[in-house]
Design goal:
Radius of gyration: 14 Å
Order of helices and strands: HHEEHEEH
Structural class: alpha+beta
Strand order of the largest sheet: 1-2-3-4
Distance between the termini: 48 Å
CATH class: Alpha Beta
Shape: globular
CATH architecture: 3-Layer(aba) Sandwich
Largest sheet: 4 strands, mixed
Number of domains: 1
Length: 107
Amino acid sequence: MDGSGKRNKGARGEREAAALLSDELGFIVKRNIDQTREGGSDITIGKWQLEVKRQEKISIDKWFKQATDACKSNQTPAVMFRRSNQDWKVCINLKDFCYLVRETFDD
């Protein structure tokens, strides 16, 4: 796939992820369309900085570094990814996962 094909596939993946997140969260989630020029993540939701990948070859460490590099000190990195014909998955740090789990027990 050439450069423009990869960019188009990436943009489609970001749009798909934003639409799915919007449906699941109940509010509009938008892509950071200027992120290539200005830096930053593909999608920002509150403190979460999401790097979105729609690829067959999984490179979690590389993608997570990309997400981490896009974060400021008060932000949290995450990678949202999927292969063809598979569900979306999200990768986060263990400390962030533990925080989310503890939150479910506070109810």
